[in-house]
Design a protein that fits this description.
Length: 164
């Protein structure tokens, strides 16, 4: 497993689908993952620390894990098959560790909230990763959150392709 972090969020120019882009710590490879509009919004809101009056779904899951004495220690993007990514939440409680199947977008949304590491399998990076851009710039920054929100609001769930 290779530690990765969020490089940014973008929109696929052709299909207008949200993409979460991860990068390795050495900044040699990027991993784009097409995600749904709602998951992109959940990740964006967590990155930008937008407060909500009530817990959203990912907040609810994290609150439940913590209330039961658990800690999300990391999330792992474990595999890719036919363009579909697979991930697991790694949750520890006392002497026990659980691996919970998850879509990568949900795992990443939870990782941002839990402030835990995101890891990607070397085989996933080899198959779906690409070279780190020569002149990188973050794809979304805190000051751009409102613009990103406007773009997400324009999307219809029916128009989104899912590759999670």
């Amino acid at each position: 497993m290779v530690k990765v972090e969020i490089f940014g969020l973008a929109l696929d120019e052709a299909g207008k689908s949200p993409i979460i882009v991860l990068k390795d710590e050495a900044e040699t490879v990027v991993l784009p993952i097409w995600i749904g509009a709602m998951e992109a919004m959940a990740i964006s809101m967590a990155i930008n620390r937008v407060p909500f009056p009530r817990p959203m779904t990912h907040d609810l899951l994290l609150n439940t894990i913590r209330a039961m004495g658990g800690t999300v220690t990391r999330v792992e993007i474990t595999d890719i098959e036919n363009g579909t990514f697979f991930a697991e939440l790694v949750v520890a409680s006392g002497d026990e560790t659980w691996r919970i199947d998850s879509r990568p977008s949900d795992a990443i949304a939870l990782a941002v909230r839990a402030e835990c590491p995101i890891l990607a399998g070397e085989s996933v990076l080899e198959e779906a990763g690409g070279p780190f851009p020569e002149h990188p710039e973050a794809l979304i920054k805190t000051e751009d959150a409102e613009k990103w929100q406007d773009e997400l609001d324009k999307l219809s769930e029916d128009d989104i392709k899912y590759k999670m």
